[in-house]
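for the recovery benchmark. tokens below, seq after
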């Protein structure tokens, strides 16, 4: 809901109008994209959590569901199936967002979906991949935890627990 609501609200606020600032015009498509990307940024770098947060995957898919349901559904299916098969949530997340972008390319070229949606998918996917850089390093080194595995406990030198 965190990703879908801002995109829908932006489309209601703008409707068919165009906001012109100088020589730059912002239409409904761009307002939706900015709202979706702002939701991802707000999730990843929350001011309420001292600019820390999640990875933005669910927020990305929520925004994409409002923009382009086919790409969101196919990317989401790839996420769940690949995470289920490999038991790596991070791998499923990365593969899901990349798949969503790849699906959106022919939808944009052949079926003339708005180019702005492709921009949302590109920026969102790159952001999520960057947010997963530590997971990617653990996947490469073979130390990434699988779904259902318990974290190994580390004793803190400060507290001794």
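predicted aa per position
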């Amino acid at each position: 809901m965190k990703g879908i609501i801002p995109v829908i609200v932006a489309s209601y606020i703008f409707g068919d109008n165009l906001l012109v600032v100088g020589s730059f015009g912002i239409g409904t498509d761009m307002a939706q994209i900015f709202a979706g990307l702002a939701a991802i940024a707000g999730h990843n770098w929350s001011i309420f959590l001292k600019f820390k947060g999640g990875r933005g995957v669910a927020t990305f898919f929520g925004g994409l569901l409002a923009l382009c349901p086919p790409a969101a559904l196919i990317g989401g299916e790839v996420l769940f199936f690949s995470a289920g098969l490999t038991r790596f949530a991070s791998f499923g997340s990365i593969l899901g967002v990349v798949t969503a972008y790849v699906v959106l390319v022919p939808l944009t070229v052949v079926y003339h979906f708005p180019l702005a949606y492709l921009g949302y998918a590109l920026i969102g996917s790159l952001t999520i991949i960057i947010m997963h850089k530590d997971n990617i390093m653990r996947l490469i080194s073979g130390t990434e935890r699988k779904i259902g595995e318990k974290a190994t406990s580390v004793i803190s030198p400060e507290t001794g627990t």
